[in-house]
Amino acid sequence: MRESLASFLDDWERRGDDPAVAQRSGVRVVRWSYSELRSLAFQFARELETRRIEKGDRVLICAPSGAEWVAAFFGCLVRGVIVVPLDLESTREFVARVQLQVEAKLMLAGRGRRSLAPNVPVVFLEDLARTVGLYDGSPRSFVPGTPTDIAEIIFTSGTTAEPKGVCITHANVLANLEPLEREIHKYLKWERPFHPLRFLNLLPLSHVFGQFMGVFAPQLLGGEVLFQDSMNPTEIILTVRKHRASVIAAVPRVLDSLRHKIERDHAAAGQTDRFNANLIAADGQHFLRRWWRFRRVHRQFGWKFWAFVSGGAALSADTEVFWRRLGFVVVQGYGMTETAALVSLNHPFKIGRGSIGKTLPGQEVRLSESGEILVRGTNVSPGYWRGGLVPLTNEEGWLKTGDVGERDAQGNLYFRSRSKDVIVTASGMNIYPEDLEAALNSQPEVRESAVIGVESHHGPEPSAILIMSRPDADATAAVKRANQGLNQYQQIRRWRVWPEADFPRTPTRKVRKRELVEWIKQRAAVTPDQPGGYSEIKSPQPASSFILEQIARVSGESAAHADPAANLATDLKLDSMGRVELLSALEDHYQIDIDEAAFTEATTLAEVEKLVREGGTESTERVYPRWSLRWPVTWIRTLASYLLLLPLTRLMSRVRVAGRERISDERGPLLFVSNHVAMVDQSLILAALPARFRAKLAIAMEGEKLWGWRHPRKGAGLITRLAGLIEYVLVVALFNVFPLPQKSGFRRSFGFAGELMDRGYSVLVFPEGKRTRDGQMQSFMEGIGLLTKQLGVKVVPVRIEGLYELKRQRRYFARPGEVRVTVGEPLGFSTSEDPAMVTRTLEERVSSLESR
Q: Would you say residue 374 lies in a domain?
């Protein structure tokens, strides 16, 4: 029986070097073991002790999810300090209002955050390990808290209402964890062949359900948590397959976006009809038959992936059925901040279809006369924070959730709607917005919808706000078709077309319907009724405020009043790397895939807006040569290098190497950057490097040329195609090259470079992009600055001299010392540095290198 949440640290000690957390850092993946996390937690507790932050004091955390967040959380717990987690999207005003209430003595923030608490010391969470590195990481002198101690205060906010801080005690969380731990214990023997289970957590740790799935539940299985900021469906699937994740924990909208990606993939392959027929045929089939029927989708995610855990909002029945028919498990939980994340949870092997599960042991749930869900139990928060506790239950201990539900004979709970969202018509009929939204979202013209109640001369009635799949989509036809599947009292007679590419949302991706109501009030004028009693407002389609904000962030130029015809380059000051950053931000925010080639060709703000509105299209997948990193290719490359390439290079060039001692103490992967003279540059650098780097070096090559060898132009003859394929295989196998394009496809190539470094490979890049034509070094392409920033490793400048003269004279053998390779001092750059400045610095360092 656990007395406090700090008891998890004892489990961490037993698990030692087992992997606990993996997180992205740029394009790299950093892993933390249980023992490393434990030490960091106790080191941070010592930092709190040094700052005289005592039991009952408060600490704000407003930073990205990751290992440091988890360690800081537990460091506060063992010190008895109360954690106050805040959403990354919290405004300066909101943080200030929270600080007025909690009077925190320290704030842990993500680097670059501007919404800092006034007059509060700040520690940047990314620097936590360096900040506390000198402290002892042992648990001495720390006393765990009691079950009734407050562990954290989680603020639920509206933009107008005063923030409400929900106090969560150790007992609240443990009340939900203990029955889960008992149930998991029954299945641990079946988990061993699949150990370690990896959870991809896409939920924010600032929310209690995100903590449940990203901090506590995986530890009960000794599993590993993967943290990822990107919500792009392609990136999610790549992460799941690459890291062999077993479970995705996410809000329902992520499951929706992944579903849409699978459907787009089949549409692009012309297999929509066949795919839909298989979905219908899979209904009621045994799990193994469904798995086999959709084995291609399972291969796409990786063979180890099997389950989604959805929470934070209601998952649509259509999406749940979709994933189940594909042969995946969908586990839904229901709860709220006031109930420490959970009230009910589906058993992964005993799921009631459409249900949000059965009530967890130790809790009571009943439905009021109006159908509202009432909860009572140890998991219910003792109250709101107002300088002390303000109770949130009634005299009998019941918490009114504000949600309307139903229960079946087996005890399964079903979510119907938020009670405040239920529309009660003048005739007394209850209309649940979720039912209408499901009907609208099934129409091909509608990408997403939100239904709210409005007052009319007939009384309250539903009004739909629509985001269309295309700018020219017919909203009237979509609404009429949706109405055909609804009862008479549910009919939608009013609708609007939302002017932006997405609705305003909370950090857990719920639609902020209050803002939609305000938007409608500001546009009270309604066009004359159309035939059939339909009415609609046609609003102008300005650029999304989010797009304008991101352009301003990337370019540093204000875009608040940009014209739709504004040119991205000349008017909005976006260079090629700025486009890459903007593209990533848009994909993550809207959870769509945008064709990078199409985005590169877009020249105006209106064209960018159109790409986003159309929901994105899957870009042509570029194949990266992972086969060259496996046996027997690695052995063949090593043998060819030492028996053929290196002897031949030394015979022909007799290269003189200077500065090799500058990297004699370096052990980790490095990024080498060099000027580009001739085709043999990589051979010269290979010969100049110490053996430990030579054995594991990957070389970036012009992507368009490499892909051109693998995929010749249409109409190419058999001999041309065969010659290109042979050239591709030989170059990749013997030199371990990978594509780094000059036009589009940067992000995937940067990601592959990060994957190479995660495997222990150093990377060689020629930032000029092309070989010199006159012997003079050309300007470096700006992508090298962004790549350096995202890789987060030391950069070694390299300079090749004397080779151009041989090339100009068409000589193939050099005199001793005529060709020189100089290795410079390794350079370190912080992740906050401007990529353009990094590029200029690297260019200057390579240019200034001279052989001695």
A: no
**659 and 713 part of one domain:** yes
Nearest to 153 by CA among 104, 224, 214: 104
Q: Of all helices (H) and strands (E), which one includes residue 344?
A: strand 344-345
Residue 163 backbone phi and psi in degrees, to 5: -55, 140
518 vs 225: which has the higher pLDDT: 225
Token output for 814: 């050099």
Do 566 and 523 share a domain, yes or no?
no
Residues 656 and 803 in one domain: yes
pLDDT in tens, 639-656: 999 999 999 998 998 899
Q: What average pLDDT does range 52-66 have in this prediction? A: 95
233 pLDDT higher than 70: yes
Angle at the Cα of 108 from the Cα atoms of 173 and 38, rounded to 5 degrees: 55
CATH code of the domain in which 582 resides: 1.10.1200.10
SS (H, E, C) 731-766: HHHHHCEEEECCCCCHHHHHHHHHHHHHCCCEEEEC
> Is 496 within a domain?
yes
Are 516 and 557 members of one domain?
A: no
Residues above pLDDT 90, as percent of the chain: 54
Position with higher pLDDT, 394 vs 571: 394
Gap between the Cα atoms of 651 and 646, Å rounded: 8
Residue at token pair 């990136």: 235
Q: Are residues 565 and 522 in the same domain?
A: no
Residue from 371, 352, 519 nearest 432 by CA: 371
Q: Is residue 163 part of a domain?
A: no
Give the pLDDT band of residue 458 (cuts 50, 70, 90): low
Tell me the pTM: 0.84
- As a whole number of angstroms, the distance between CA 291 and CA 304 comes to 12
* Residue 356 covered by a domain: no
> Is there a single domain that holds both residue 572 and residue 508?
no
What is the number of domains present in the chain? Answer: 3
